[in-house]
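Entry 12.
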Amino acid sequence: MTVQEKVEDAFKIFFRKAFALTGSSRTDAGVHAHGNYFHFDTEEVFDRKHIYNLNAILPADIVIINILPVAPDAHARFDAVARHYRYCIYREKNPFIDDRGWYLPFKMDHVLLHQCAELVSGHTNFIAFSKVHTQVKTYDCQIIYSRWLEKDNCLYYEVAANRFLRGMVRALVGTMVKVARGNLTIRDFEAVLKAGKAASADFSAPAKGLFLERVEYPEGLFLSETP
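Predicted 3D structure (tokens):
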């Protein structure tokens, strides 16, 4: 079951009626989220007790942080103005983050990683980093930032854009890692960026290292900051 289906089940169990939720992002199975959103139509009035009871029904890996009223025509997916993702790569064996990162104990050229990230920032068409059969009208994405960070012997790729294609962040990471390990050159990476064919990139980066950090919405969408 997807996260959405599990949350819908919790609502149905507690309220004894069905709720149809719409999510802000459609991520691959195994991807984590620190800040995902769903919208739904209801006449129910929610308070902290409702949130507590719903969380008691949900499995341990899903938590409802808040339930807020929004504008009548608000849409969790289409009203989002930006999505922020982070991908974690760890260099030394660590059982405490094995389910939240990609273990790569290999030598990588960090300068090349930064160069690749900079090239991503200046690009708009990401068809090569999209899986096939996505049924999208355009492959254009406006990148807000694209960068690699190093902390506590881990590498983090952080990227934000107005929208992302299916599998795009994992494909960016997988292809940049190939450059950093010497399997592709910077020119090869530029060629992939400019490729006009879907799934031309490397999709080997596992889903478990990817986090949806947050979703941004325009001012005025939320009608209050407390339930």
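Annotation: The two ends are 27 Å apart (CA to CA). The longest strand covers residues 82-90.
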